[in-house]
Design brief:
The complex is a heterodimer of chains A (178) and B (923).
Chain A lengths: L5 E8 L4 E9 H5 L1 E5 L13 E2 L8 E2 L11 E11 L1 H15 L9 E6 L4 E11 L4 E4 L4 E3 L2 E3 L2 E11 L8 E2 L2 E2 L1
Antiparallel strand pairs in A: 1-2, 1-7, 3-6, 4-5, 6-12, 7-8, 8-12, 9-12, 10-11, 13-14
Chain B lengths: L3 E4 L5 E5 L2 E6 L4 E9 L10 E4 L2 E4 L7 E2 L10 E10 L30 E6 L2 H12 L12 E3 L3 H6 L6 H4 L17 E6 L3 H5 L1 H4 L5 E4 L2 E4 L15 E2 L4 E9 L8 E5 L16 E15 L2 E11 L2 H6 L4 E7 L2 E7 L12 E4 L3 E7 L4 H8 L6 E5 L11 E2 L25 H8 L7 E3 L8 E3 L2 H4 L3 E5 L41 E7 L5 H6 L7 E5 L8 E10 L2 E7 L1 E3 L4 E3 L18 E4 L5 H20 L6 E7 L1 H11 L4 H4 L8 E3 L4 E3 L2 E12 L2 E9 L6 H5 L3 H6 L2 H9 L3 E5 L12 E3 L4 E9 L2 E5 L15 E6 L2 E6 L10 E2 L7 E10 L2 E2 L6 E7 L3 H12 L16 E4 L7 H4 L3 E10 L5 E10 L1
Parallel strand pairs in B: 10-13, 14-15, 16-27, 40-42, 46-52
Antiparallel strand pairs in B: 1-2, 3-4, 3-38, 4-8, 5-6, 6-8, 7-8, 9-11, 12-13, 15-35, 16-26, 17-18, 17-23, 17-24, 18-22, 19-20, 19-23, 21-22, 25-26, 28-31, 29-30, 29-34, 30-31, 32-33, 36-37, 38-39, 41-42, 42-43, 43-44, 45-47, 47-48, 47-50, 49-51, 51-52
Classes of the chains: A mainly beta (178), B alpha+beta (923).
Amino acid sequence: MEYKKLLIQQQTYNGSTYTNVGQVVDTQTAFHVVCQEFPFKYLPETKDLPKRDWYDEDGEDVYIPTDGLRFKAYEMEVKFLYVGSQDQMKNELKSFIDFICGKNTSGSPLLAVYDEYTQTGRRGVYVTEVGNELLTYDDSNGKYVNGSFVSDVIGVFKVKFRVTDPVYSVQYSNGALS
Amino acid sequence: MSEWTIYSKSGAAKAVVHELEYHGEWMRDEYVTVTVKSAEPVDWQFDDYLTYRGEVFSISYDPNVVKKARRGTYGEGFTYDNIKFYAIGDKTRFFGFKDVVLNPQSAANKLTYTSLATFSFFCSSIEDFADRLQANLNRESQSSLVSSWKVLTPIYNRTTGRGVSITKSEWLQYFELNDNNEVKGETDVNIDVDRQNCFDVMKMSYEKFGLAYYMIGTTIVIGGKPVHLNTGSANIFRYGKGLGLYEIERTSDDNQELVTKLFAYGSEQNLPLNYYANIGKRVKFQITHKSVKTYISDHPTYYLWTDAEWTSQLKNAFPESGEVVLTFGSYSAHFRFDGSDTIFDDNEPTIELNKKCLYFYWIDYGEQEEEDLYTHVSVNDYVYVTGVNINAIPSSYIEPPVGYNYPATLSVNRLMLPGYPTQSLHSWVTANHSELLSKYDFSTTAMDPWIKSKNLPSMGLFEGIVNYDGSQQTEIFPSLENTTTNANKVAENTNITDNGYLGEGSDITMILKVVNGDLNWIDALGNSPDPQGVYVEIKSGFCAGRRFKVNKAKLVSNVWELTVERSKDDSTGRYFPYFEDAVSGYAQVKTNDTFVVTGIQMPDSYIEAAAEKLLIAACGYLDKRDHVRYTYLPKIDEIFMQRDHDERDTESYHDTIRAGMKLEFEDTDLGIWQSPFIDNLTIRENGNNGIPSYDVVLRDEKEKGTLEKLTDSIAELMANPPVQVVERQQRTLQYVEYPEWDDEGLYYFETVNPDTDVLETSRVWHRGCLWECHRTLTQQEPWFNNEDWVCLRMNNVNLGFYTDEDPPLPILMVGVRVGYVDETIVPYLLVGQEDISSTVTSWEWVRESGDDVTDDVWKNSKHTDPEDPESPLKSVTRTLHITDDDLPENWWVAGSKVSFKCTATFPYESGESAEIINSITII
């Protein structure tokens, strides 16, 4: 079965510039992890605007900034699938979680994420919570290997991310997210 | 969202902040606070700075820090909360104010200085004070943020004279034109400094000279013209969307002392002992016999013997030296003493004080009065004597007051309101200050003087007592001050030749010559009720504030020569006046310097003058307390301010508002119009979802400290008589709106409406417009061509299109046949059905066909003056005549319709214009 890729690159941010750290990681190749749904928002909720509710006027008086509307950071819950062998599942999930939390060697917890399925990517993303539930299933689409029937295990788990830059659209090209 | 970068003094960026709070207090601190959160500790240094609204603010201390995490592990591991960056002017706090002067010992300026930190100096005006300030600010080389300080004052030449480089036009940005070099503020002020810094001493420009100041960077402006935040009446802040204020809070002063009935008393200073108990009483002696003797040929000597037995008690009643007056009917004679029982002057009548009885004699030198006095006095007649201490006269020689009715046991030694105890205050005011009767009620009982406010019936009774004796209020007592004569002026410069440093045992006396006025100094010395003696206190000139004790007095060539003791300055040990050098000479008491006298019994006329002053002061006191005082807190609409900032950028209210400015606002519902000073200003940048919010505290005047409150001078009250005070304080201008103009109606402009007693500006509706009266009692109909009225609002104003027929018919849309277009369109400016087209000052037509290039060509062809095609001035064409030539080529193919837009400009409110636009379409 072919899965659409989820690409993640670790980053740092100094207040003005994002700098990539290490290589772009294909989660399926590296950890046998793919995403079931990645609910990026095209434009999330706008930031609160200065407004005044005049008691003696209809409606409200709102100030629209001259440089346009601004958007709030937001959280999203992503459902991941682990599709791999039962034996490797524990290690690979641990490596995946360490990676997205920047706990790998020379890692950084700030991420640029690109979902090939939705063709949407965001930068300035970090993990806020890793779900504790892991539901596992046997893959009924197993196959015979060396005369034995082998089936993958499918593990479902959830991770919450916060998207701090809700507008910038990350693209994948030349082996890097930018 | 705004952000600010904090730099080191070398210019390296240290941090960026997105929130900032600005605080400014009028004539006090001005600073911004920011909070910096960092993963790394920040190496703050003095003079790290940021720029806010174009001004530099810097750190002058080491900010506090809270550490919450190891370096580099947490973005907010090091928090520097509320770091204060002070305005550059705050650096004057680090300059001690010392006894230094500009250009010491130069040819033009022979001032000397000691460089002491505790000293006093004299300022003839604020200009001298500013010179001292400038001299202190010049003392040290400046920091990287400060190149030089400029102290600007209301006289241009004096400003540049202290080394300030400024052009006249630059100076005029801060001051009114003052080509006459008129001195502003108080004059002749003595300043005492005791280890203070320049920032604190600067406050004295307001406290001592009455001149407010403000600082812009390193420029200090003292006594500048008031700066209005608003740029004119059109920009008065009002409540409402787009008008500047979203709330107006009115609070009454809980701590206010309410007084509607006032009892006022003066000081005991200079008041004759038991003064009020002796009013109307007279000392009288009965003539027992009379005789004439001739010792000198043709010059008889007249004798009058009295029944007054010459006892020690009686002798004590007569002054040791001075004068008593003998009065009989219309005749009187002045008898003078020189301190002994002998004849003072052969040419003057004399009292012989022998051991048996009191008798008078005088020699007839040929004056008729000398003979008349003797001839018309008969044995058993009474003669009346003044100039003696009535308290020491045996009661048998005192005639009770005639026509007066006050208790015989009356004993009051304090200055009372006029008339007391013989005439009611009401009666006295009726005779002397009848203009006060419309403002106050006065007691009709002579023995119990009080003043009642006209507000008492509505406010209720609140009794108050005020003592003008120096404890609560400035002392009021009989003195020579403020007399209209020259009696309180120095007649001649003193001529001290030493430098004022006198050793122990030195002669500290000098001769002070003063103008001969009403005061008989010999009497004053002889009758002084004060055991400390008589003092002259100089009120102007270099020795202002110095007190000289008077030891002797002598009248020479109509000038009083007073032997006085020089005054020692405790801080320097120097006696004033002194001699500095031949050029300065200012260290003397000079001709026309003024003074007051203390420690004397004043003549009745001065007591009455002081009582009158007490009355005026008391009326002013009552004025401030007979009504509830309100404080208004208008709240500024930050959305209004932000839109203004978007439009005007650095000229906006946001970028220009500062403490010390005047903020004009009004509200017709609350009946207020105010233009107070901004005393406190806080701007919270990004305080409301990304835009700044504002807090202002407004005051009519800077709140004074306790000391300054005590010195609330009577002179100020005298300069602003209570009648005016009442007018200003009790009446707030009210805008009174009338439903419809009436040709017999009475309308007012900032004038008291006698029917309502309200200070009124009338507003009236007429022909669909709201008009404001600008000439009291005008009979003119409100209309645009009439300057007596200003249009404030129009209801249902519109621009309509009509044919040029008579009567004109409205046109909504024009349908034409191509090749035969010939339409005339006349625009009308209407208020309801009223045609006000005659008020339109310009008409402008533009064509809108979708092709901007040809539309511009059309506009230029229509608006260029045909008489002068090169002229940039465009002709004004109201009527639009449209032919095929006015329409684009093939217009009917491309879009099938073309619009013509008309803009009419017309006057609206005072000096302002408004525009109205409408379009008509050709199809």
